[in-house]
Design a protein that fits this description.
single chain; alpha+beta; Glutaredoxin; Glutathione S-transferase Yfyf (Class Pi), Chain A, domain 2; 2 domains; five-stranded mixed sheet; 8 helices; 9% strand; glutathione transferase; Glutathione-S-Trfase_C-like; glutathione transferase activity; EC 2.5.1.18
């Protein structure tokens, strides 16, 4: 089926249509007439927290997954926003780039932004540190040589994860409330980032990665068990990261 779709841009779908417009029960608010298109690669990494926000809010959106290939590197990226994905298109003209900026916009609109100013800052703090960890991990996922990849994984498992994971665990302990969320006592957009990355890292490096971190285990399970997220995950394309 994918061979019939233009090489540069492919939109994955549940069932048979080429464009996937996700609809779920509304949790927060209606769209108010806006239409949304999320442009990203067929990855979870920076796109999934945004897709989860739409699922939680019950807001329809077009999930446009762009092929990361030679055509993208040579031409397509120079025609899209800042040349970076994800990119959120609202209506026909409004575009927002950068995953955290998109997430904050949607969180403010659909109820996942804390009202407490310090809690807002803590969300930024957590997401920024997750992004720092992602940048350390990125060479591993981009490396195609098996020998070099094994060396990079060893460094991740023995150096970088042992530095960051206990700090994420401690963050939940200090900043989270009794409900098990990362910041305060209610679900925020930062929870989606944390659960997404922990899921991806354990998918790639094994569940034993967080065996010593019960709060991270509980947090990931709590977020992934949210009905709207669970339903989305059951239908999304299977990706390694």
């Amino acid at each position: 089926m994918l061979s019939a779709i233009p090489k540069c841009v492919r939109t994955f779908a549940a069932r048979d249509s080429l464009q996937h417009i996700w609809r779920s029960n509304r949790l927060f608010a209606t769209m108010g007439g806006d239409s949304y298109t999320l442009k990203y690669f067929n990855f979870r990494v920076l796109g999934e927290p945004i897709r989860w926000q739409f699922a939680l809010a019950g807001v329809p959106f077009t999930d446009q997954r762009i092929a990361r290939d030679e055509a993208w590197d040579a031409e397509v990226k120079y025609k899209i926003g800042w040349g970076r994905l994800p990119l959120l298109v609202i209506g026909e003209k409004t575009e927002i780039s950068q995953s955290a900026a998109i997430s904050r916009h949607l969180a403010t609109k659909y109820g996942l932004m804390p009202t407490n100013e310090l809690h807002k800052t803590r969300c930024d703090e957590l997401v920024d540190n997750l992004q720092d960890m992602r940048l350390l991990w990125r060479p591993y996922i981009r490396e195609s040589d098996p020998v070099k990849k094994k060396i990079l994984e060893k460094e991740m498992v023995e150096v970088n994860f042992p530095f960051y994971l206990p700090r994420f665990e401690d963050f939940i302990k200090k900043m989270g409330g009794k409900e098990g969320y990362a910041v305060g006592d209610s679900l925020t957009w930062a929870d989606l980032y944390l659960a997404n990355f922990i899921e991806i890292w354990t998918d790639n490096h094994g569940k034993e990665l967080i065996a010593s971190y019960p709060l991270l285990q509980q947090h990931m399970k709590k977020i992934l068990d949210i009905p709207q997220i669970k339903e989305w995950n059951a239908k999304r394309p299977v990706t390694k990261f």
